[in-house]
């Protein structure tokens, strides 16, 4: 009887702790959902132009050049948004930045809806681009700062999953809806987010950085529930880390451009060129039903990105990136060999199937790691005192790379389809070495522990004689 009472008394605190943790995770999940509505909006903007091209050009009498401006100006707006995203998020807070982003996106969609010609259409697209340029930075940063270390990777990976869902949904729905109505559907996630932002807390790390102590503790309590020990432990860890940063010198521009933080190698692996011009690639390869191929190309990304969100906290960031880099290399190499066979009239009947297989391997491999994990790392590896400036630079570099690859893709394909994919496969092969040698593993560590590890590694490198 005494043993049973003892076991009961031991189980009660454990059950109470489990109940508190479950409640706090529900708050974190709800908070994350509100934030990643911005990611869905990001995807909606990216997926809008493809299904409406013929309808818009016909109704507004646009030339191919005018519609090309409409499609590409989104990246211009995103680059402008990227430049300002870090400063806005540091000055206005993470929630404030999301409000501004939603506001610009809503205004942009309304401008597109009322467009009677190219000018207002382009202005609306530019405003949407500015909005998603901010979203691309602030959403993964915010989720990374509010999520517990054991689920942070998976929640941060939801950013990419929602981008893919938003783009795919808009692409599919756009085949059925009139283009003006489709523009109005882009407003919906922004309105829901603006409403939801009133019910979620600000990033506790940002609050601590700006000295809002009362709000800082309040945010931690909302995220951790009644678990006073967890609140006290995380509060002390964050404050100790901020005190340490005060005694360190400010980061230089060279620090912000360290190669481990750059997205260049991802963009120049060809993902935007392949994604934007997949239909053209399938047609040039002789795929008989390019529409079915496009649907397969778009739909495969959603389940694989969902799997990535589950694996990132179980397998780690680095293994997923290595697997992803290897797969993207293989997919590009298969496509290159396939087009080489077409150029030399070898096994012509196999070329369409091989190109389709290569691109599906490429985009599936990209989705499992290179699509989501770099955004997870972006939310983890920068010190909070340089996160705004560094994040803006990485975000700008990401959008510039996206524009450069999408702009040069057609020129490269005109030069040589096989050569194009050989170039991309070379970049993907280089990314395997890059990830293996440079990228840190951050699984299962708090943001403060990650910074301590990175600083320790840097100090050891600096202590080595030349």
From TrEMBL:
InterPro entries (UniProt xref): MFS_dom (IPR020846), MFS_ERD6/Tret1-like (IPR044775), MFS_sugar_transport-like (IPR005828), MFS_trans_sf (IPR036259), MFS_Trehalose_Transporter (IPR050549), Sugar/inositol_transpt (IPR003663), Sugar_transporter_CS (IPR005829)
Xref: Pfam families: Sugar_tr (PF00083)
Protein name: Major facilitator superfamily (MFS) profile domain-containing protein
Family to which this protein belongs: Belongs to the major facilitator superfamily. Sugar transporter (TC 2.A.1.1) family.
GO annotations of cellular component type: membrane
Organism in which the protein naturally occurs: Gossypium darwinii
Signal peptide per UniProt: none
NCBIfam families tied to this protein: SP
Residues in coiled coil: none
